[in-house]
Specification:
- With about 600 residues, the chain is of the alpha/beta class.
- Helices cover about 35% and strands about 25% of the residues.
- It has 19 helices and 24 strands.
- The strands form five sheets. It has a ten-stranded mixed β-sheet, with helices on both faces. It has a six-stranded antiparallel β-barrel with strand order 1-2-7-6-5-9. A three-stranded antiparallel β-sheet has the order 15-16-17.
- Helix 7 runs antiparallel to helix 10 (about 335-345) and helix 13 (about 420-440) packs parallel to helix 15 (about 470-490).
- The longest helix is centred in the C-terminal third of the chain and has 23 residues, at about 420-440.
- The protein is elongated.
- The relative contact order is 0.14.
């Protein structure tokens, strides 16, 4: 038995009114060596109904007046509280949901801190706790198996503690379960600000850290060859138009597949022969050939091509040599004598990387299409310029590998040193590469044998519908990929963890598919409205407290939790914290009086 603190005086729907006894106002009460908290807002009360204890939370209190007929000037004040039922306790176990309701005059009792812990946590042999309840200061054992088997959203204004919550959540997971999840799960952090490149979550030596830099070459992320030579991806990367430029890229990729046994040297010879042996020479084709000679770095070929000119009266190319003037016609004698020996001496083309190969194949296909009138110069030339600019940047941050490489338990990919364009594009390439590989390996297995977890801090950077800094088609494709992951990924064992300052900027489709939320302080009305419309498990009382939460405190709710609760997340030690601490101006601006 516990301490009797009141009785039921009214029941209306699912609202219960209690009359509280006078001696129940203490903040803390000890009874038989057990600690109880007094009756106040946010505290938990049980009402005994037969062998069932109905559990509720106090959401309001007020005083009522009572006068006596014998002495009208004498007034008695009665303390009343409004209680909302949460569930019931049967056989010392809590069950969520309204199944039983009390009757008038049923007695109300205080709940011990141990029982409150059972309501919000789980009874497990592990110690998966990231903090204490704000009101009761009780450590809560979270249902880790239901949290990480779902999509997670961690939202809060800057400085509210969301990065600490994200880090604490996964640090606790690896501390408790690292040996069990090795070889079975992979975790990938897309880190926009370089906050997880030290000893965060697990020690540096136990994780792979890839620091990408668009200013100078550092680390490179490996992309599967098959995913790089993808028509849809290349079309989006180079902002190809649908009617002319996308079909051109398709011809480039299909030609590579069709003639995979042919070397680049053979391809170069075929294209140059077609340019300089055609009955009707194309001046634009000569310009493209000069660009090709420059790309392959052959000074002899460049010199010869610079001396070749278009002779309009006969519609052919010609070159003035030491022993006379040569005309390039369909017979091919001039080509065989002047250009073929130089082209036949090209022995370094097979050593170029995939990026240079793609650009060279684009130029060769462009040249061939001009000769055979399959494309117009002014339609394709802008695409080539964009491709050249993009590929020069990608070469600094990506490497193309023939087969999928083995992945570490935790892979941190830092985009801090990347420009804004790459910050938009790379997460898509990374996610597509890893998701496609995992999906193919687990496609016919149910349930999956392995899991893949994407952790995206500052997720609004890539999942926003409001961005105007990129091509519309690219933004749509990026959102569609992540929407597919969050809608279909669960069946393949792929899960997202998103952290953001502005949940309203993230695609509503993505937010609506998140299962569990850790919500820190949010004050923007659009953010609060989105949460109100998206989260069915968020009660009115918890929602009202979101704008007022202190740093480090968050509302925890979702499918893994029977009831919403407010946690104060334990701060990590400085050496394990994300690199996002507030600047200490008192220390920074301190005047050294000894100088």
């Amino acid at each position: 038995m516990s301490i009797t603190v009141g009785e039921v005086i009214a029941v209306s729907g699912v609202r219960i009114t209690l009359r509280i006894f006078k001696d129940s106002n203490q903040e803390t009460i000890f009874y038989n060596g057990v600690k109880y908290r007094g009756v106040s807002l946010g505290e938990h009360i049980s009402i005994q109904r037969g062998f069932i204890d109905i559990v509720g939370i106090i959401e309001g209190e007020y005083l009522d007046e009572k006068t006596f007929d014998s002495d009208l000037e004498k007034i008695q004040y009665i303390r009343k509280v409004e209680m909302r039922p949460l569930g019931y306790i049967m056989n010392n176990k809590f069950y969520e949901g309204v199944k039983y309701m009390p009757m008038i005059l049923d007695k109300a009792y205080l709940l011990s801190e141990n029982m409150v812990g059972k309501i919000y946590g789980i009874e497990d042999c592990s110690n998966f706790s990231i903090g204490n309840t704000l009101k009761e200061d009780i450590p809560i054992n979270l249902p880790w198996m239901r949290i990480f088997n779902s999509h997670i959203g961690i939202f809060g204004n800057t400085g509210s503690g969301k990065s600490n919550t994200l880090t604490k959540l996964y640090t606790t997971l690896f501390n408790e379960k690292k040996s069990a999840i090795k070889e079975k799960s992979q975790f990938v952090i897309i880190d926009f600000n370089g906050e997880y490149t030290k000893n965060q979550i697990i020690p540096t030596k136990e994780k792979l850290i890839t620091i990408l830099n668009t200013r100078k070459e550092e680390d490179k992320f490996p992309i599967n060859n098959e995913h790089f030579w993808d028509e849809e991806i290349l079309s989006l990367l180079f902002k190809a138009t649908i009617n002319t430029q996308k079909p051109f890229l398709r011809r480039v990729i299909n030609g590579r597949k069709k003639y995979k046994d042919k070397s680049l040297k053979d391809y170069l010879a075929i294209v140059f022969r077609s340019v300089f042996t055609t009955p009707e020479a194309k001046p634009n084709a000569l310009d493209i050939c000069r660009e090709i000679a420059q790309k392959i770095g052959d000074s002899d070929l460049q010199k010869k091509l610079n001396n070749i000119e278009y002779f309009s009266p006969r519609g052919v190319f010609r070159i003035q040599e030491e022993y006379g003037c040569y005309y390039f016609n369909s017979e091919g004698n001039s080509y065989e004598k002047i250009l073929f020996p130089i082209i036949d001496s090209q022995n370094n083309l097979e050593k170029i990387d995939e990026f240079d190969e793609l650009l060279l194949r684009c130029y060769l296909r462009f040249c061939s299409d001009i000769v055979y009138v399959k494309a117009q110069y002014e339609h394709i030339q802008p695409l080539i310029i964009r491709a050249e600019a993009s590929l020069s940047t990608f070469q600094k941050v990506l490497k193309i590998v023939p087969d999928s490489q083995s992945q570490p338990l935790l892979h941190v990919i830092s985009l801090r040193k990347c420009n804004n364009e790459i910050k938009k594009i790379l997460p898509l390439l990374i996610a597509k590469n890893l998701y496609s590989k995992h999906k193919d390996s687990e496609a016919n297995i149910s349930p999956p044998n392995k899991t893949l977890h994407f952790i995206i801090d500052e997720a609004h950077n890539i999942l926003s519908e409001q961005s105007t800094r990129e091509h519309e088609l690219w933004k749509d494709y990026r959102l569609e990929l992540f929407e597919e992951i969050i809608k279909e990924g669960r069946k393949y064992g792929v899960f997202l963890t998103l952290a953001s300052q502005r949940p309203a900027d993230i695609s509503p489709t993505i937010v609506s598919q998140i299962h569990n939320f850790f919500i820190h302080r949010l004050v923007n009305e659009k953010d609060l409205m989105l949460l109100d419309n998206t989260i069915s498990t968020l009660d009115k009382n918890s929602k009202m407290r979101i704008p007022c939460l202190a740093k480090g405190c968050c509302v925890v709710t979702g499918t893994a939790f029977d009831l919403p609760m407010i946690l104060k997340v334990d701060p990590l030690e400085k050496k394990y914290r994300p690199l996002s601490d507030d600047v200490d101006l008192e220390k920074l601006w301190k005047i050294n009086l000894n100088v």
